[in-house]
């Protein structure tokens, strides 16, 4: 009888590798604040890093790419009829390819480029975007009889890396250290930040990055009485933001109006460690210092599931929703051993799987790839990244591999799938120089291809180091099993629709032809008049039955109470001013009599 010894999985050979030093970000003063957040957020356009700053809190926003002119030397050879375009950049990645000129004078180049036809025996240079003419050159060491050559200037996107100057502009509007940042999934130029100054700020980043320090946020959200350590955008609804603070309060905001729509009070009796939305944003999962996991319906303001002592250790826990609704947690045992567990929210009595890892004391930060069902664990202070695959087969949580390095990590950023170049194929190359130009030729037979499936940004003491996760594949074609349709940048719902009770899954996009970012619309904040809102809420409460309380009535009633308090204070001040006026008039009368 056949017995399978090795589990079949396309992710068994996931391999992590750091990029070269010239592709890292150096001389970054990463924040030293004692808070267990990732300190880094990444999207397809920018990487944001919380840094040390005097006189308040700040974070860097670095563009991943910039436009730069690239000079290409195009050579047409007589012997093998080939057009060589070395050093061509595409989407910020260096591509080396050779275009063959066939008898019908059609050039076929990189698989992403369409063929270019030439009507004349010698290709006119203007046909490929250059107004300069061809000119004869010597063959050099190429071994061919080179007859024509022309230099092109093409504008391309190139990676922005290297040393970050100390005077580089920052986002610096907070008066206390920044604790957490999160990019909006529906607008790559909008980022939210929470700080020790008890505020949440939402920022609009210029399209090409910061040229000057940014100190004026698009909107300031005030509602917490203690520091705000968690900010998280809704995965499918536009302009819906969640914040959690050390006042044990969770607030769900409508960023478009600057209002606190939902206040989850009296649900947590101790500090909140983590908050995570589920796949469509209908539920949230929280962990707190009281060792409880809670699944909450925020619009009903109701705890649907609660588990006490999910991990018995005193160190912080983390919990995330998986795409199938299960909950993945990290924590510590009573003996301070780090653990991972998988839970079914329908039955939280016992975990589906529970594994002990090691005895380190660093908090494990989980990063989940919903397209591949792979969970990456990055421990603060560790120098490694573990990754696991979650399946329906026992033991359900399968260890894949570990990426290890020498330097410990202080934080980690995770790139969304749409920010990856899925067509990138790592190929062994050889370089040679003809005395004038550095040529690159592809070794045509023996390839070593690695398909990029995930990308991390590891924060060290004074450095941000990108780490790529790859899977070996024999073909350089698009891999449907590695790159299923993934969540795109379009919102499935507007904020008002979600607050009214509607749900929608993320709008998926295909990565087969690569992700092309569209034009991001500016964040517009239209704050409502509290007086108009007061009348609207009164009508809503009168029309609603006792069992049909509107979801937004609680914050509106709070606003009404604040308004009444302000009006009362104004009346008191008016009475005080009136009494002082009488007293002043009486004193003036007495002075006039003395003068007489």
UniProtKB/TrEMBL annotation:
Xref: InterPro entries: Coronin, DUF1899, WD40/YVTN_repeat-like_dom_sf, WD40_repeat_CS, WD40_repeat_dom_sf, WD40_rpt
Keywords associated with the record: Repeat, WD repeat
DUF1899 domain sequence ranges: 4-68
WD repeats: 171-205, 221-263, 265-306
Pfam family, one: WD40_4
Classification via PANTHER family: CORONIN, CORONIN-1C
UniProt family annotation: Belongs to the WD repeat coronin family.
Annotated protein name in UniProt: Coronin
Gene: Coro1c_1
């Amino acid at each position: 009888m056949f017995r399978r010894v090795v589990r079949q999985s396309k992710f068994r050979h996931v391999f992590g590798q750091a990029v070269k030093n010239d592709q890292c970000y150096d001389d970054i003063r990463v924040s030293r604040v004692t808070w267990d957040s990732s300190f880094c957020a990444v999207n397809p356009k920018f990487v944001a890093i919380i840094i040390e700053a005097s006189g308040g809190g700040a974070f860097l926003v670095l563009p991943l790419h910039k436009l730069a002119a690239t000079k290409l030397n195009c050579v047409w050879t007589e012997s093998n009829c080939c057009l060589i375009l070395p050093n061509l950049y595409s989407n910020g990645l260096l591509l080396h390819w050779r275009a063959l000129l066939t008898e019908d004078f059609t050039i076929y180049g990189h698989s992403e480029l369409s063929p270019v036809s030439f009507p004349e025996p010698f290709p006119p240079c203007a046909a490929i975007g250059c107004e300069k003419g061809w000119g004869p050159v010597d063959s050099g060491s190429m071994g061919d009889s080179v007859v024509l050559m022309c230099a092109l200037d093409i504008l391309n996107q190139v990676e922005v890396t290297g040393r970050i100057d100390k005077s580089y502009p920052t986002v610096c509007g907070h008066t206390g250290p920044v604790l957490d940042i999160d990019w909006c999934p529906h607008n790559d130029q909008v980022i939210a930040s929470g700080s020790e100054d008890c505020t949440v700020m939402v920022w609009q980043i210029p399209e090409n990055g910061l040229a000057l320090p940014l100190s004026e946020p698009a909107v300031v959200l005030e509602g917490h009485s203690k520091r705000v350590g968690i900010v998280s955008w809704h995965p499918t609804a536009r302009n819906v933001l969640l914040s959690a603070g050390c006042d044990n309060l969770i607030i769900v905001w409508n960023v478009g109006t600057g209002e606190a729509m939902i206040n989850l009070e009296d649900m947590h009796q101790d500090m909140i460690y983590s908050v995570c939305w589920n796949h469509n944003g209908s539920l949230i999962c929280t962990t707190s210092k009281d060792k409880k996991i809670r699944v909450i319906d925020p619009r009903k303001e109701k705890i649907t599931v609660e588990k006490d002592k999910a991990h018995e250790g005193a160190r912080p826990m983390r919990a995330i929703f998986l795409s199938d609704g299960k909950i993945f947690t990290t924590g510590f045992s009573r003996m301070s051993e780090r653990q991972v567990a998988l839970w079914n929210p329908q039955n939280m009595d016992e975990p589906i799987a529970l594994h002990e890892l090691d005895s380190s004391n660093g908090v494990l930060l989980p990063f989940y790839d919903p397209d591949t069902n792979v969970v990456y664990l990055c421990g603060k202070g560790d120098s490694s990244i573990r990754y696991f695959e979650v399946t329906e087969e026992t033991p359900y949580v399968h260890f894949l591999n570990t990426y290890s390095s020498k330097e410990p990590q202080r934080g980690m950023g995770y790139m969304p799938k749409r920010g990856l170049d899925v067509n990138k194929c790592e190929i062994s190359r050889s370089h040679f120089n003809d005395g004038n130009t550095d040529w690159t030729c592809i070794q045509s037979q023996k390839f070593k291809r690695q398909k990029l499936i995930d990308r991390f940004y590891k924060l060290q003491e004074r450095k941000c180091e990108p780490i790529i996760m790859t899977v070996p594949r024999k073909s350089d074609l698009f891999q449907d099993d590695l790159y299923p349709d993934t969540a795109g940048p379009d919102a499935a719902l507007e904020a008002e629709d979600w607050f009214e009770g509607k749900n929608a899954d993320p709008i998926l996009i295909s990565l087969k032809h690569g992700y092309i970012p569209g034009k991001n619309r500016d964040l517009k904040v239209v704050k409502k008049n509290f007086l108009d809102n007061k009348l609207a809420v009164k009508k809503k409460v009168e029309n609603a039955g006792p069992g049909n309380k509107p979801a937004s009535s609680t914050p509106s009633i709070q606003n009404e109470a604040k308004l009444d308090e302000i009006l009362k204070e104004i009346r008191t001040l008016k009475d005080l001013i009136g009494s002082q006026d009488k007293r002043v008039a009486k004193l003036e009368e007495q002075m006039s009599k003395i003068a007489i």
